[in-house]
Amino acid sequence: MKSSLFVVIITIVVSLAAQETTPPASSQKHSITEKDLFNFVWVANPQISLDGAHVAFTRVTVDEKRTGYESSIWTAAANGGEAPVRMTNGKHDVQPRWSTDGKYLVFVRGGDKDETGKPKPGQLAMLSLGGGEAWTITDLPKGAANPVWSPDGKRIAFLSSTTQDDIEKAQRKKNAAKAGDAKTGDAKASDSEHESDVHVISRAVYRSNDEGYLDAKRHEHIWLLRAHHFRRASQPSAAHQRKFRRGSARLEPRRFAHLLPHRARR
């Protein structure tokens, strides 16, 4: 009887030991395949707050339909003592930037589609760290990107290839929609404002993974947006007419006055 009980105890111990030493099937190592891409998680564009206490970054994952990527803004404690926290609910939120007082995050939000199903260009959005949802602070036909706070926190510089003609065309379209003429308006006016989707390639570098086809006639400019009235729509202004293809706006204390329009230096 004692020998039988001894055998049973030994069997149980061996069984438990086997469970502890044998890893589950899901954790066993295997050669990487193309399907593993769906499980990847990327973090990018880390931005440290001015007090050095927190880091804002972009988290990128594959969407549920496995047809594209989704990105959101997260923050984490710089000392690693707290778990990261998701800050935005958008599906295409990128480029977070801290305000000088640490109370706001400005970022680029994209993902919306127009009436034809094409994705709209990303716009700047503002998030209060005191709570609440983010809200959009720009509405430019060609979008906005690469936001940078001024040293005094009163303005935001960003890049956009929008021209005055683009703004006037968008305004005419909005006015026609309000008047009910979106579908019954003048056909000649509609044809004259139609943008052709035909691309004539004459350069070796003609396409970007992020921007799509490059337009040699369209260049990015630095724009300024007043940031002291976050809850109200503020009309940005083109502050610098220098043309350039790539890069980002940089505001240094000594150079910031040079970028301001003359009427804004008072």
Describe this structure as you would to a colleague.
The protein has 266 residues and is α+β, with helices and mostly antiparallel strands. The protein has one domain (40-182, 205-264). The protein is built from four helices and 14 strands. It has helices spanning 2-21, 164-178, 187-192, 256-259; strands at 42-48, 54-62, 69-77, 85-86, 93-98, 104-109, 123-128, 135-136, 145-149, 155-160, 207-208, 212-213, 220-226, 237-244. The strands form four sheets. Strands 1-2-3-4 form a four-stranded antiparallel sheet, with no helix packed on it. A four-stranded antiparallel sheet has the order 5-6-7-8, with no helix packed on it. The chain is globular and about 55 Å long. It starts with a helix and ends in a 7-residue tail after the last helix. The model is unreliable at 4-21, 185-189, 240-247 and 251-266 (pLDDT under 50).
Secondary structure layout:
Layout: H1 2-21, E1 42-48, E2 54-62, E3 69-77, E4 85-86, E5 93-98, E6 104-109, E7 123-128, E8 135-136, E9 145-149, E10 155-160, H2 164-178, H3 187-192, E11 207-208, E12 212-213, E13 220-226, E14 237-244, H4 256-259
Antiparallel strand pairs: 1-2, 2-3, 3-4, 5-6, 6-7, 7-8, 9-10, 10-13, 11-12, 13-14
Give me the strand/helix succession. HEEEEEEEEEEHHEEEEH
* Percent of residues in beta strands: 25-35%
Largest sheet features: 4 strands, antiparallel
Overall pLDDT metric: 76
Helix proportion range:
10-25%
Extended strand count: 14
Low-confidence stretches: 4-21, 185-189, 240-247, 251-266
- Rg is 26 Å
Shape, please? globular
Number of helices: 4
Strand order of the largest sheet: 1-2-3-4
Overall tally of domains: 1
**End-to-end Cα distance:** 99 Å
Question: Could you say which structural class the secondary elements and strand pairing correspond to?
Answer: alpha+beta
